[in-house]
Design goal:
Blueprint (H helix, E strand, L loop, with lengths): L1 H8 L8 E7 L7 H9 L5 E8 L10 H18 L9 E3 L15 H11 L7 E6 L3 H9 L7 E6 L12 H5 L1 H9 L4 E4 L9 E3 H8 L4 H15 L8 E3 L3 H5 L9 E7 L2 E2 L4 E2 L6 E8 L1 H14 L4
Parallel strand pairs: 1-2, 1-4, 2-3, 4-5, 5-6, 6-12
Antiparallel strand pairs: 7-8, 9-12, 10-11
Length: 309
């Protein structure tokens, strides 16, 4: 019975509007901003209920707390550029640290809000949770109220493709415990693996300069962000940049498989090196291929048509 429920909830939601929240480490990279903007510009289909700032820790942030705080401010900046300041009241600060243990949530405004919103939904009308960061906030909510697993569907970008067993992927390695909680919780889960699948969703400098830079203030910010980031380390005359996080939003717009291919698989256990595949496991959905040109075209057209005040 449980597997039947999961299979039903993991079906593509169709073209009717659905309730969505997004969990994002927005300051960490230059692609979260694209994902948030794409989500905002698809408001007729994706009813944005809340935005959660996720922790991250690297050369851009001295601690997970600082990464979360910087992401919170970057979310507000994107909302302003998009001419959507009314969403400011729906932005919540997330965890200030990664999971200290496999059964220990990091309680935050974001995880508490996710619990509350998920409990207001049902298996028939689930809340769709787009995760494009370490899974800390999502795992913390599941640890606080495990029953929310039957009221939401998580679309999470992270980890590697099964044919690439290395796991040096940022969203997974940042909080491996949280990823293990997420995969093991039984929540309906859609995984978009980064290395080996989503890494092929790239855009070029010439495309950014031709289409986005002249369009509007939001598009100009998104494009210049990417160009400045890549120019800081690339010495190549020609380059492309992976815009990872857009694909997680696009799964909810994937009617007819126009943006990606996926399939049902038994949920594995993510490890620091590869995956463990138990003999018995609940089903999840696994994205195996991105239709790059179709999704880039949709992304650019959507942003250019409604990209700013």
């Amino acid at each position: 019975m449980r597997d039947q429920l999961l299979r039903k909830m993991l079906e593509f939601p169709g073209t009717q509007p659905v309730d969505v929240v997004i969990d994002t480490d927005t300051f960490n990279e230059v692609d979260d901003q694209f994902a948030l903007a794409y989500l905002l510009r698809n408001a007729r289909r994706l009813r944005l209920q809340a935005i959660y700032a996720a922790p991250f820790f690297n050369e851009k942030a001295a601690s997970p707390r600082e990464g979360m705080e910087k992401s919170y401010q970057e979310i507000l900046k994107v909302l302003e550029l998009a001419g959507e300041p009314e969403y400011r009241r729906l932005v919540y600060k997330g965890a200030d640290r990664f999971l200290p243990g496999a059964s220990e949530p990091v309680v935050s405004d974001a995880s508490q809000d996710l619990v509350r919103r998920a409990m207001a939904h049902s298996p028939e009308r689930p809340l769709y949770v787009i995760g494009i960061a370490a899974a800390t906030n999502l795992a913390s909510a599941l640890l606080q109220r495990p029953e929310i697993r039957d009221r939401m569907v998580v679309v999470w970008l992270g980890g590697s493709a099964y044919h690439r067993m290395e796991q040096e992927e940022f969203n997974l390695i940042e909080d491996l415990l949280a990823a293990q909680v997420l995969f093991g919780s039984g929540v309906p889960l859609v995984q978009l693996p980064c290395w080996g699948v989503v890494e092929h969703f790239t855009i070029s400098r010439s495309e950014l300069e031709r289409h986005l830079l002249p369009a509007n203030p939001l598009c100009r910010y998104l494009a210049s962000n990417v160009i400045q980031e890549v120019q800081s380390y690339s010495r190549d005359l020609c380059w492309t940049k992976t815009i990872w996080d857009v694909t997680a939003v696009a799964w909810l717009l994937n009617e007819g498989g126009r943006f990606m291919e996926d399939r049902l698989v038994p949920a594995p256990i993510p490890l620091r090196a590869g995956y463990e595949f138990p003999e018995t496991s609940h089903p999840m959905r696994y994205v195996s291929h991105i239709q790059r040109d179709a999704l880039v075209s949709s992304l650019f057209q959507t942003l250019m048509e409604g990209g700013g005040p």
